[in-house]
Queue: 2 jobs
Job 1
Amino acid sequence: MFRQLLDTEMDLTLDRIKLALMSASADNVYPQVPAPASESHIDFSTSLGVQGGVHVMGDPERIQWTPATAEKGGVFWTQSLGLPDERQIQWSRNVPILQNLETANERDDNDNGLVDEPGLSLHVEHAEDRELQVFVNLTVSKTDSRGQVVPRSRQVNITCRN
Amino acid sequence: MLVAAVATLGAGLVQVSSVSTRRQNLSIDTVRALYVAEAALSEAYFAVAQGRGGTLASDTEPAEFGGGFYWVEAEDLPDKQVRLTATGLHGRGKFTLGLVLNRSINRVAAMGVCGLKDVTIGPGAVVDSQVSDGLRGLLGQLLSPLQPSVHTNVRSNGDITIYGPDPLLGGSPTTIRGNVHAGPEGIVDADPSVLVTGAVTSSSRGLTLPTFTIPKLGGSSGNFTFPKGKDEATLAADSYFDTFSIPAGKTVTLQGPMRLRADSLLVGTGARLIIDTTNGPIGIYTLKRTIFEAGSMLDSVVPDPTQCSIFALTPDENDRSLVTLGAKGEFYGMLVAPRALVNIPGDLHMVGSVVAESLYVGPAAQLSYAEDLEEGGYGVKMTPTLISWQILEVPDSPLTRGPGSIDEKLQKLAIPTVPTKDSPLETDVELKYYDNGGVFRVYTGPVAAVPWGNVLRVDRVAWYIGATLQPEQKPSIVIDAVDTMRGTVDAVVKPLG
């Protein structure tokens, strides 16, 4: 039950990140950090479609990890970043400062190709021609009734469609 | 008491667990519906590439796909754009995606005036842009010549160097009526006197080219020899020579529709090559050298750049070729020479587009980019190009309304479904083609009954929706597939890595 809820939190968070970044334009994704580095936030704009023959992009958006305690934080999605109608929604509450099995030592401790990557880590890879792929690593962890920290980690690879 | 408490707790846990399972199932079903909608968009893209409208199935008869169902609505927009709206349904999940495409874009011509490695423009040169008034056909083109426009792009993956006239000697200013885009790590180095009317920037990404094919044309006839005692010759059918050389004082007219293939094309001083596309397009394919010597002449009879292309292609990716357009005259068409140093010294007025490896535009040369090529052009792949992809609200329909799985709704509403292969509206086709004997033929009927065994080369395709024949198309996805299958091309030139 406990693990199921943890899995659900991770799956829903990753699905939301996936849907947001799928609609993004490769030209408007920032920062574009390649492995082994990574970032805990990403800014982007999504397509609003075509009006009068012109491709219209939406207001800037951000997905980021924000600390709540010294060890843990949440994943937030910010819409209309920096604009008067900016709003923020929390997608996950249980994301540790670093990925599972990773420590801050400038090494790839968990052997996933990334160094000292945060609990929400994002890096990019340029595929053929215009394609931009964003790799998202997410760890969600909670302390169970026995006091043990139970982590769940997964990576998704998203191709920006615009 | 204890039993009741445990039972209540147990029931509560079961309820929480089933809510969680439902959320997970919904999430899985939604993701599956998203992928069904993406697959539907792919099917619709393929249909558009084939020259069809893009509509697939409907909410009254959805198509089956991977345990789910979909339909795609297509809406034609101005400027040859089409909006595709795909709805995917899987289990309890539903998802709608929107895609706006340009129906067909000539990606090669859209590069404008391009040197993949570098571009050098000499002092006094003019690079501008022209567009026709929209009239099609010979009469329209003759009556309404191309008009000036401002959409030229000079592009490179590397540096672009533009020289102005010598301040001491003076001379006409070097003028670029449009934008100049160097490569991601390149720079634009322009003399202060150079006039650029548009933006001067470095691109965020490099340029890439599609693959090109070289037609076989039945094998080489050796070297072209000029008929004795004559000063003029006409080629009006596909021709393949090792060397195609026009000596001084002689004139050759290429009369379309035809293709000319030669290892080397040499037009000597005082010789003339005339391109006549009055009755059809002309493709010139050279593999080694393409030389128009100074004092030679190159002329297009019809001012339509979409009807003639010169391809200087080297099948071996380590080879490089040389293209020198030292001729006088006016040439309307595309020049595609991705592994060549292309030199346009100055006497030729070229109206069309140029893609070279290294491009040198000489002093006082005039290059006019023809915007018409973005929607046409001979011998290049014309494929739909994505403009916008977005997630949309799921439309209201009996199949998307209310709870329950799609399978339950289909059963309850007695809605029939169709296999994916039967989802396009168009079932019959009019296919114009050359048969194995080179005879031009027209087939009209179901796609499934096209006599592919006797189709050597596809010329045009038009689809029927019901009894209404849709406009003719030249879908490269069909033409290329048949060319490859029948072996009418013998070399594929891959893009520069």
Note: Residues 104 and 116 of chain A are 5 Å apart (CA to CA).
Job 2
Amino acid sequence: MDEQALLQRIREGKLVEGPQHATERYLEGLKRTLIVSADTELISAPAYLRAARHAPSLNAYVSALGIIQDELGHAHIAYRLLEDLGVNTRQLVYERDPRDFKHPYAFDVPLDSWTELVVANAFYDRAGFVLLGDIFRHTSYGPWKRALVKVDREENFHLRHGERWMEILAANPATREELQRAVDWMFVMTLEWFGLPDHLKRHTEQIEYGLKGSTNDQLRQEWMSTAVPLCERLGLRVPAHYDPQLGQYVVDCPFPAEFDEENKRWRFEDGPVSWDQVLQRWRRRGPANGELVFQLQRAYRQLAA
Amino acid sequence: MPSPEEVRQVLRSILDPEFPVSVVDLGLVRGVEVDGDVVRVRITLTSLGCPCVELIREDVRRAVQQLEGVREVVVEQVFERWSRADITPEGLQRLREAGVV
């Protein structure tokens, strides 16, 4: 199939069902998008498990484990789709260098408490929900679209779990401050998750090929449109507000900024940095990167030895 | 005070947190008693380690509390066996649409 026939097919709203309907360039873009999604779901499992140990009750622990199990299921779906496209997923999951994983930098910053875990459920899973919801509605790749029906509902449960626990922690003066501290670093971390602003974005085939429907900036807005009201309702401070004149959310802090990994805080005092500096930090990966990937690969290595 | 049927009716509006099916159609509601202004709802779960137990209990409590004449809602978790056979035909239809079964 040539480029023109493919674009014609997509414009007509017909789904691509496999390589027979696609071009090499489409397949490369699809694989790149799928790998980011698969890696993100997968790395969230050890990242969340690390923090779930601090669960305040057995029911809370079981909820956290249920979420982790869902995430592994979602990762499996995406890797399975990659396998069907001829990608060696065994190599991808078990033999890849930790720094070559494509999940957002956010997951390389360790979650150290139950508070940070539930904010991750409310913020990070919301980002996943926004991104996958967009893919579900717009993707031109049929097998992915069908697989996402179930993912959408499960992420909904993760969000509710996160929101419910944020409510509980916000209502208690003894835990409120710790919650605010988690929100302080994790809110901006999730803003960054959506990536380069539209005017700097290089890969355009994602939109062109209908792999996704909305741009990074649109998705960042969509995330803020529910995350900001949630925080306002709970009386938590966030550096963003809705501007009725612009008809959109405005970020009120230097963004993007440099992140102090050791103290988990944004160095707003240094002012905004360039996205090139952010990309450099992402490429270096964060403090928990090696540990989390090691956990995923440990048993495979032991069996192979 | 509401009748048990009215309580069941309101429970039909409560969706399972993970699936687009009501707790009634999923076969989780195992008894409704109205005793004056106290409503007792007995629910079971699809598995012993159900990750959504707190959410379901809260949803049930909140919804029933809205009914006129209700002062207290007791959500009692019973450990009755649950299986696929407990899902109503409507529930199965919804799950099929969601690609779950």
Note: The radius of gyration of chain A is 19 Å.
